[in-house]
Structures are given as C-alpha cells and as structure tokens.
Design brief:
The complex is a heterodimer of chains A (446) and B (285).
Chain A (H helix, E strand, L loop, with lengths): L2 H33 L3 H10 L1 H11 L5 H25 L3 H23 L7 H6 L19 H5 L6 H19 L1 H9 L1 H6 L4 H23 L1 H18 L3 H29 L8 H19 L5 H29 L4 E2 L11 H13 L3 E3 L4 E3 L1 H23 L9 H7 L29
Antiparallel strand pairs in A: 1-3, 2-3
Chain B lengths: L12 H11 L11 E9 L2 E10 L5 E5 L6 H8 L7 E5 L5 H4 L3 E4 L13 H6 L3 H4 L7 H13 L15 H14 L4 E5 L7 H16 L3 E5 L3 H7 L2 E6 L1 E7 H4 L2 H8 L4 H18 L1
Parallel strand pairs in B: 3-7, 3-8, 5-6, 6-7
Antiparallel strand pairs in B: 1-2, 1-4, 8-9
Chain lengths: 446, 285
Amino acid sequence: MSPALHEFLRLDLMAMLAGTLAALTCGLLGNFLVLRKLSLMGDAISHAVLPGLVAGFMITGARTSLPMFVGAAIAGLVTVLLVEVIRRLGRVEPGAAMGVSFSILFALGVVLIERAASHVDLDADCVLNGQMETIFWNPPADWGAFFTTETFFGEAGVPRQVWTLLVMFGVACAFVGLLFKELRIAAFDPELATTQGIHAGAMHVGLMVVVASATVASFEAVGSILVIAMLICPAAIARLLTDRLSSQIWVSLIAALTTGVVGYLAGARWAVHLGMPRSLDAAGMMTIVAGALLVLAIAFSPSHGLVARSRRRRRLARTVLLDDLIGALYRAREAGHDTIAPEALTETLHGHSRVTRGAAMARARGLIQAGKESLALTDAGITAGARVIRRHRLWEGYLVDRAGFRPDHVHDPAELLEHLDEPGVETPAPTIDPHGREIPGPDAAD
Amino acid sequence: MTIAPDTPTPRSPEERIARSVLDARPEHSADSPLSVHAMTVAYHRKPVLWDVDFDAPPSSLITIVGPNGAGKSTFIKACLGLVARASGRVEFWGRPYEEVRARIGYVPQRESVDWDFPVSALDVVAMGRYRRIGWFRRVSRAHKRAAMECLDRVGMSALAHRQISQLSGGQQQRVFLARALAQESDLYFMDEPFAGVDAATERAIVEVLRTLREEGKCVICVHHDLETAREYFDHAVLLNMRVVASGPVDDVLTHENLHRTYGGRLTLLAEASEAVARAARGEGS
C-alpha cells in the first residue's frame, strides 16, 4: 500500500468514521426531535450529561470506562424527567423547562469538575469540542498482513470510540426501523396513538433514552456542539426538501453522511491545501458544513425555498400585469377604441415601464399587435381579455349579491380577485354586472 | 400518568351518605356502548366534570352540547383514559376500556395536530389501522387499500397522496373522519367534527354519520351549533360541568334546559334557537 494511503488510514480514517457515525446516529434520531418541536432537547441532554460524566469519572477515576457512560446516560434521563416535571409543575412551555434544566445540570457538572480538579484529568473543553483528532488507528503498512483479527480487534486495532458509535448507530437504526410507524403516530397524534395502545408518553421516554445514549456515545469523539448541530441540521435540511417522513429520513442520512465526510476532509486535509497554516478542527468544520447545507436548503428547497418562492411571486406578478393590460385594452374596445396609445395606459398599469413590459409580453404571446404609437388586441387577445373582464364582473356581482358590498365599492376588490378563478355562481350565470355592463359569456369571442 | 383510585375515601359524614346514595344507583346495562358512572375530573384541583352519569343508547347519534369550558372535550378524553379521572367508572358494553379498545374510535379536534407534518392523507388514514396492524409491522398493501376505501367514502380518494398541509380545513376534517372509519369501530367519539368546515364537508360528515347509525354503530359528537344538533342527532347531552339533561334531542334541547346550561350569558342564543325551533314546528303543522 502506498505511504499516502497508509497515512490516511492511520491518521484520518478512524476520526472521520467516528465523526460520520456520530453525525448519522444523531441525524437519524434528530428527525423525530425536529418533528416534535423538541430540537432544544438535544442541546439540553448534551449539556446536562456533564455531571453524570464527572460523577462516573470520580467514582472510577478512569476516563475510558463504562461507569462514565452509564453516569452520563443516567444524567440524560434525569434531564428528560426534570424537563417534564418542570413543565408540568411550573406550567411553562417546554423550551423554558429545557433551558432551566440543562443550565442547572451543566453548572452542577462544572462545579463538580472544579471540586475534583485536584485529582482528576478532565476539563469542560473536551466535552464541548470532543477529541476527534486523538482517534488513531495503527494498521499494518502492507496488504499482506492487513486482514487479520489483530488489525481490527487488537490492542492497536479499531479504537473503542468507533466501536461504540458503530453499535450506537446500529441501535438507532433498529429503533427507528422497527418502530417507524409507532414513532410517526406518536409524533403526529399522541392522543390517537394512546387510544390505539401505543402509549405516546412511553414512546417519548423511549426516544429520549435512545437520544441520550446517542448523545453520550457521540460527544466523547465529536463534542457536544457537533452533537447539537447533528441532531438538528440533517433533519431540518431534509424537512425542507421532502414532504414524506420516510424520504425525509433518507435525505437526512445523506446530509449527515455528506457533513461527516466533507466536514472532516475540509478540516483535516483541505485546509492546508487552501493555504491555512495548519489543519482546522474537524468537529468545527463538520458543524460549518452542516450549517452551509442548511443555508443551501433554505435557499433552494423546491417548495419552501427562497428561490422557488421568489420565482412563484414573479410568475404571479407577470400574470397580473398581463391580465391588467389585456383587460384595459378590452375595456377600451368596448368603448369603441380598437387601438389605443401606450401612454393612455400609464395610469391604469401604474407606470410607463410596466406598460412597455406588459406590451412586450402580450406581443410575444400573440395577444396584441403593437405599433410604436398604438396597441390593438388580436383575436386571441380579445378572447383572453373577455375572460379577464368576465371574471372581474362576475366577482363584482358576487361581492354585491353574496357579500353585501355596495356597488360603488366593488371595483377595487374585484381588480384583485379577477386574477383568480371565477367565483362559484348560480346557473345560469348573470349576464349584467352591478354597474349595468354586459358580462362576456364563458366562450366569449370564440 | 397517575391513575387516581376509583372511589376516594369519603371524609365527612355528609360525603359518606352522598357516596352511599351514589353507589346505590342501578347497575348500568351491558347493552349500552358507553356507561359513565359518577365520573369526576379535575385539572389542578379545579373540577371540570362533577359526578357525571350517562348511558348511551345503542345505535344512535349522540351530541354533547354545552358552553365553552363546560368540559365537553374533557368528557371524551376522560372516557378514553387520556386524562385521569379523579373518581367514577366508565364501561363500554359493560367492560373496561382496556378490553374493548379496538372497538372504540376517536376523532380529536382538528387543531390538536400539526398539519405541516410530512405525511400524506393516505398515511394519516392508515394510522387508524395501526392497532390492527400491530407493533413493529409495516403497513401492508391490504391495509393501504382499506384506508383508500375509507378516503373514498368521504370523497377524498383523489387527494390521497397530497401532503396534508395542502388540504383545506374541510378536507383535513374529512381525512380525520376517514381515519376513524379505518378504525372500523363500533363506538366513535368525535370532538367537534363540524368546526370550521365548508358546506360540502358538513354534508359528507352527516352522510357518514347516518351510514354508521344504519350499520348499528354509536357516535358521540361534541357539537356547537344548536340548530343543526336537532337535525343531525337523535340524542343530546347538555353538559355544563354536570349533566344538565340527557335524552332524545327534542326533549333535551328546550328553552328551559338551554337556559340552565348556558346560564344568563347566552340567554339570547337559547331564545333565538327556541324561536327558530318554534317557527320550524309552525311550518311543519
């Protein structure tokens, strides 16, 4: 194997794997937090486990032991219960209950660390930022000796953090895979779930147990900040891009995978090539990548995105301008002016430039013949104009007959409503509007 | 959730006498889909329902009517065990809720769920069948077909694959109704199914209610509109913390009873509806 590949396997692969597995696990579970509007719960748990970690640590005196994990998991559960108790007894919203619980527990953790600082080696920094860069692997440098038990399970084999995260990811997949339907109904309609024997409260606690375990398993490797980002960002990205829970979950996993791989490589490898003096914190870069993906999703989501929304708005504005222009020309025609000078429409269409733009659009669609000094409807234009005016006058009639408007107050609202469908009217449809003008028939000028 | 004991220990002699009187009431019939006996519910020590007794006649459409805050939704939720009862007993066909869960359907208020949730109308209707499907299993094609038929019954099959946020309020309510049908229950609780729906949906709901009655099922509906209550339902329960009156709808929704239920606050409403009812009777004769 080439030295470069060996170096990658030795220094980067396991750290990247740990980060990516943490991202996948948290991203998967985050879907249900975001849906239940409990995004802050990840924040709460990941801070509040600190006293549990320290307590486990103080009891055993070692940093790589099971008691620490258990202590943290217990603290995570205590947080969940504390939030519930504060919410019920204090009658405050869940966000406030979470904020209070985790700040108290985190503070307790900090105090415990201070108290224990004399004889333990632990600081709050590594809880926040993790120690991804300290995860190494030591595989043999040639392929011949590579595929042995020693390489993967031995003393210098795949690090414990990666195994832990792998197991945790498996647990999370099994949890969501087996209970997908139950988690979905408990999140959507807890009362119906409960009446069907799927106790929504128990499902909530179950979910929180898994989230707490995932948080604890993840943050020794990647730190609590990344855990919070991973619980929220992939799910939020996927929420913007899909409208089914199952596809949302797949998209969130892809987003988490991308975040893990790209974020790690950007921090550990590409930063140097891009002229940074040294490699950057990989957990930090992963968080930034997740944030960047979320920004992209906000901008380009096909249904909720800014770009799609602005395109829809522009299309609507074009329809309105075209309707207004054609309608005005149709009215002029009714008054006996088959052609009309563009200047005469400046006031109706609110501005000379709008007249020019509308005329260009209408000509492109074959609705008008436009000379330099005059505009005239084509046959197609007359049909289109009749349709606009029909909608306008039907709406006027509707507003007077059904909504009780006075006839002299209906023009302006009808001016807005004419761009929608016709109102539902009795048959036969009226033929005269409230101002005594004829309403063009449904197949007018055909 | 904590479950309060069925009968709290009486503290005073008066209470003890009252309790013995309550206990002496006749046993409820096993035919009745729902028997509520001396049910009291309190939120934070403030009673919401007080000593409620009710027997639902089989195969009937029953409406629960009462002012805001009268405990109508609480009545339903307490029957279904969604809020804890302070005391009292609720039986379905003479048996406790846990044994007959599968025979009881529930339509919560439309506002009680998040309609932005990423599911289709069909997904929501299929939720009505989760109990049948059982834990851990996926929703099979047969169950999806059954859900589709229920959507068809409320005239919504064309919109089955829409995300629920893209439905109008009336359409959303119909999805909820289809979900209840998918439960294939014998007794339904519906919390304000007519709230804020269009005329077409109202007709569709009434149609479904009548079909259910013809099939021998029982529906208990919280309803706000006293006028249509007379038209749509057979039986009425006037509720204002206690049961003010219950029985056939024309016997119950009288001026006097409505006055007692709504108090001075809504006298106008009661009188107006009574006047309309008189006019309606006048037309009939």
